[in-house]
Prior knowledge:
- By secondary structure, the chain is mainly beta.
- It is 11% helix and 30% strand.
- It has 2 helices and 14 strands; from the N terminus they run H-E-E-E-E-E-E-E-E-H-E-E-E-E-E-E.
- It has helices at 3-19, 93-98, and strands at 23-32, 37-42, 46-48, 51-53, 58-62, 66-68, 71-73, 82-87, 115-120, 136-139, 146-149, 154-157, 179-180, 183-184.
- The strands form 5 sheets. Strands 5-2-1-8-9 form a 5-stranded antiparallel β-sheet, with no helix packed on it.
- Strand 6 and strand 7 (71-73) form a beta hairpin.
- It is elongated and about 115 Å long.
Amino acid sequence: MSRESYNVDNRENKALLESVRVSALCKVTKFDASTMTVDVQPLSKALDGGVYRTPPPVLGVPVAMIRGGGFFLRPWYKSGDVGVIVYADHDIDRIAEAGQECQPNTERNHGDEDGIFVGAFVPKSNPISGVPDDTLVVSTEGGSVYIALHHDHIEIKGDIKHTGNTEQTGRTDVTEDVTAAGISLAHHTHTGDSGGSTSQPH
């Protein structure tokens, strides 16, 4: 093989490799909870004709989530969140629609149209804070509200709104007052046997 042919082959192989999409760090610009899709802007500039340029946004990207066995864990993204998009080997349009085995709609490979947003990425400039260490945590940014699963107990920070019945085995210790049907547990009184009212609990 001549040097010229070798150089041509190298350029062609390089161009082919550069055209293959594998994954990218990106910023969320829009989240649609009804379709569980995001619009994202890739954060790494692409070399184009010797100049680094901002790549076009990728629109309507399906969001990966934990779902199975009749349960799911739904994330909620906002504009500005940073995450990772991966690109499927083949056209995923029909699979994304039907959720079952399908023949690809086209013969494209590793296309921008076949990206899947797989979750958040934590940059060093915006670390996780405000939550306990060595725990599995569901939390707001900064830890103002969270549920933390320790190895031996569950820790909850924040107000709790509960709909439904409560059944408990074990003791309940309360440091503040408890109100039931508008009546204070710590400060209520009863009508005495001979009239008047009893004193508050002590």
